[in-house]
Amino acid sequence: MDVNVDSLATELGEELINQILADAPIQDILKLLDSGAPIWYQNSAEGISPLHAAAYIQNLDLVKMLIDKGAVWNAVNYLKHTAGDIALSFNNESIYTVIRDAGIRSELVLGLLERQPEANLSSLILRATDSTASGSSHTFLVSKLKYSVNENGEHVCSVDVDGEEVGVMMGWETDIMRQTVEKLCQGHSKSNDLKVLNIGFGLGIIDTFFQELPNPPTEHVIIEPHPDVLNFMQEQGWYERNGVKILEGRWQDFIESDDLTKNGGFNVVYTDTFSEDYSDLRKFFDCLPDILADSNSRFGFFNGLGATNAFFYDIYTRISELHLLGVGMDVRWSDVDVGFDADEGRWGKSREYFSQPFYRLPIGKMKAS
Ligand SMILES: C[S@@+](CC[C@H](N)C(=O)[O-])C[C@H]1O[C@@H](n2cnc3c(N)ncnc32)[C@H](O)[C@@H]1O
């Protein structure tokens, strides 16, 4: 950008945010925007955008106007807070909902455009641009994994990402897995003859709960691509278990294979992969009608995307519900209390990837046709 244009944009951007914080009339804000003040600007003092400022002064009409004019719904300030987080901190439901719905609309539109072969779009937040082992499937699958036990005596499977330890699966998630299996299997019409498909073994926590059911699955298929995880499964005797079939590869390698499509369908399907983003999960959603047995079948997935920020977690949760509805599936949510105090040492040396007090546990069922 030309230096003069750049400094003019800065000047107008600062003026815009200051005027909003000073509660100037909407007409004045509109005039500033019309005269070229950049709606995407984030100020130098705190990194806040016009939308953050409007959320601070809790002006619903102004928030709506800024959204209409194209305000950036997911900009984060220096403290990594979005305007949605600010609305949440004031308990201002109307403003929160307007910003959240803008996020959902924008992601739905981008999702639709992305499906057009000629479109070359990258999403604002819901698709990975990370080429490390935590954001790229390719890098993850060639990275060495470490199985260990942390100071709380919990098992951890982790991967090194640029010198930082990142948990692939951690023992603190055990209760989430236990409750998921309960909700997927309890009262199931096929509980005497369950065919279960699980994507991603990790520590084998969920697979162990499936095996510990009063009636273990008659068919228990596990898809797992990582060589170190497959070794771990060998050591733990999973290849010799009755009814267990291990498909070595990614779910994408098997989704159209006879193993998944010619067995009459699964009664329970669960997926929890690593280093994949929302667009991968959504592709998996699209395959569900082909691999589930019938409308009594149940589906679950690890709902952990965006979970270091309440606002993004909410957006992912709602978008996944809408996309599942699109493939004919109703979702019921329940909350699992995973709140913990900082001294508990849940993360050990690992990067924190879930900081919400409640995990939103999804159980989907195809609508009867
Ligand atoms: C978070 S762990 C799963 C943890 C598991 N739910 C448990 O209870 O222990 C993720 C697993 O998914 C595997 N994975 C990653 N990408 C995959 C893919 N495309 N298809 C199948 N599994 C994948 C990883 O190798 C890893 O073992």
Task: Give a description of the structure.
With 369 residues, the chain is of the alpha/beta class. It has 14 helices and 10 strands. It has helices spanning 3-21, 26-34, 50-56, 60-68, 83-89, 93-114, 137-141, 174-185, 205-211, 227-235, 251-254, 258-261, 278-291, 310-326; strands spanning 145-149, 155-161, 164-170, 195-199, 219-224, 244-248, 268-271, 298-301, 329-337, 358-366. Strand 4 (195-199), helix 9 (205-211) and strand 5 (219-224) form a beta-alpha-beta unit. The termini are far apart. The model is unreliable at 116-128 (pLDDT under 50). The site of S-adenosylmethionine has 24 residues, from strand 3, helix 9, strand 5 and helix 11. InterPro entries: Ankyrin_rpt, Ankyrin_rpt-contain_sf, RMT2/GAMT_Mtase, RMT2_dom, SAM-dependent_MTases_sf. This is RMT2 domain-containing protein. GO terms for molecular function: protein arginine N5-methyltransferase activity.
What order do the helices and strands come in, and which of them pair?
Elements: H1 3-21, H2 26-34, H3 50-56, H4 60-68, H5 83-89, H6 93-114, H7 137-141, E1 145-149, E2 155-161, E3 164-170, H8 174-185, E4 195-199, H9 205-211, E5 219-224, H10 227-235, E6 244-248, H11 251-254, H12 258-261, E7 268-271, H13 278-291, E8 298-301, H14 310-326, E9 329-337, E10 358-366
Parallel strand pairs: 4-5, 4-7, 5-6, 7-8
Antiparallel strand pairs: 1-2, 2-3, 8-10, 9-10
The chain binds S-adenosylmethionine.
